[in-house]
Every structure is written in structure tokens, then in C-alpha cells.
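Sequence, please.
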């Protein structure tokens, strides 16, 4: 779907809450919602790829207050560009409310699809409620092959994926269930744990490549331990706000 008119919308305070159910039926098979914050370079590459891979998709970029050229890049390549208060869950909820597609695909700006929309449309024909993809890390280090394999096995066995794995969901039910919880961190984990009680994930037989930069910048072993520590702390009841402060050092 080529952008004929790009809408730049300012998110109101109410947009930070869970989105309301849609008033009109969906006009497109699916929409891709991309939350961004200072991702101009990666976003430019992603949007160019998506136009080739997913020509019938509606593409929405929801910016959380970028200081770089993310909004300018988005205006050139997205069907809708929305402005939101920062927070991935808030941004994705805002995009979901504005989307026109029957299904929502939530994709991170530093990721790339390793498939085209033929697979997506076949998945949609099954009328699944939700699902996710396998993940591949972009780095060449052998450790990344071990990490991504562990991530894929864990998510398949537990039905708990991360946002890096392209969470896909039927839009109307997503809105009815309240969207993503407004958490500063772990919104993807909370979503999956809630949705696996509703239905077993119908996973897409496809892979998303995502950036390994956080492992490369912080150190592979340190990052693995940190991520497992955050998950354990979340399971033990530590608030997402405290986890966010620890993760970002604030």
C-alpha cells in the first residue's frame, strides 16, 4: 500500500490509555505498527524494505519524542505518522487504535522481516487470534546463534515471546482485551502471558532479524545475565517501573 496521504497526528493524553474498540470495520488485511525513538537510520532501511516485502500493508510509525530525524524519515515512507508520549506500550496502543488493518503486526524499528507478505496473508486466512515469529540476531558471533536458538525454544515452549519476535494479533480482539498494559518495560511479556490464557499462539512459520547491538555494546555475557535477571525479578513481583530504572540506569 503506497502512501497517498501521510497523516501526522498529535497523541492526546487519552491516547496513553488502553485503546478503545474500533467504530468501523477494518478496510485492509493488516497493518504494521512501528514504535520508534531516535531510530532514523534503522527506520529508513526498514521502511524501504517493507514497501517491497509488504505492498498491501498499512504502515504506521508512532514516534515517542525522537530528537533525531525519525519523524522526517517516517513522513517519507509511512502511511500514518503519529506522535506520542514516550513508552513502547503507549506508542503501540496508539498505533493500534489508528490502524485500519484487520490484523496488527508490531515490529521494532531495528528489525527486518526475512519473508514477504505472501506468508502473512496465508497466516491471516487461518483466522488466528495471535502469534509471533522466530528471531535471528544480526551479529555474526557464534554466541548469537546460541542465544537466538535459546530464545526461540523458550518462546515456543512457554508461549511467551519478546517484542523482537514481531507480535501479531487480530485487531478487534486486541482492542477489546485492552491492548498492551501501560508498562515502561515487560509489556511484551505481560501481553503474551495474558493472551496464552485466551488462546494458544498460532506462530508464523517465519523469522525476523533483529539488531544485536545491545549485546555488542554492553557485552554478550553481561547482557544475557541482565535480561534473565530482569525476567526473574519481574516474575518475583518487582515493578516494571523499577526494572526500567535499573535497565536504563536512571
Amino acid at each position: 500500500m503506497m502512501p497517498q496521504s501521510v497523516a501526522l497526528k498529535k497523541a492526546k493524553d487519552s491516547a496513553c490509555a488502553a485503546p478503545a474498540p474500533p467504530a468501523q470495520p477494518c478496510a485492509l488485511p493488516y497493518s504494521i505498527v512501528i514504535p520508534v525513538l531516535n531510530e532514523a537510520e534503522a527506520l529508513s532501511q526498514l521502511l524501504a524494505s517493507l514497501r517491497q516485502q509488504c505492498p498491501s500493508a498499512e504502515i504506521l510509525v508512532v514516534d515517542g519524542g525522537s530528537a533525531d530525524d525519525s519523524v522526517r524519515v517516517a513522513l517519507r515512507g509511512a502511511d500514518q505518522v503519529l506522535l506520542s508520549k514516550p513508552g513502547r506500550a503507549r506508542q503501540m496502543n496508539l498505533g493500534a487504535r489508528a490502524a485500519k488493518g484487520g490484523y496488527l503486526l508490531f515490529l521494532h524499528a531495528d528489525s527486518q522481516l526475512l519473508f514477504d507478505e505472501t506468508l502473512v496473508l496465508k497466516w491471516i486466512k487461518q483466522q488466528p487470534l495471535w502469534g509471533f515469529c522466530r528471531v535471528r540476531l544480526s551479529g555474526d558471533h557464534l554466541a548469537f546463534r546460541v542465544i537466538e536458538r535459546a530464545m526461540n525454544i523458550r518462546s515456543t515452549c512457554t508461549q511467551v515471546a519478546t517484542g523482537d519476535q514481531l507480535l501479531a494479533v487480530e485487531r478487534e480482539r486486541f482492542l477489546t482485551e485492552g491492548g498492551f498494559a501501560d508498562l515502561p518495560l515487560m509489556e511484551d511479556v505481560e501481553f503474551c502471558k495474558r493472551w496464552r490464557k485466551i488462546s494458544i499462539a498460532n506462530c508464523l512459520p517465519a523469522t525476523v532479524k533483529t539488531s544485536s547491538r545491545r549485546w555488542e555494546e554492553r557485552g554478550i555475557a553481561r547482557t544475557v545475565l541482565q535480561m534473565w535477571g530482569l525476567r526473574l525479578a519481574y516474575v518475583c513481583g518487582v515493578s516494571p517501573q523499577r526494572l526500567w530504572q535499573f535497565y536504563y540506569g536512571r
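The longest strand covers residues 28-36.
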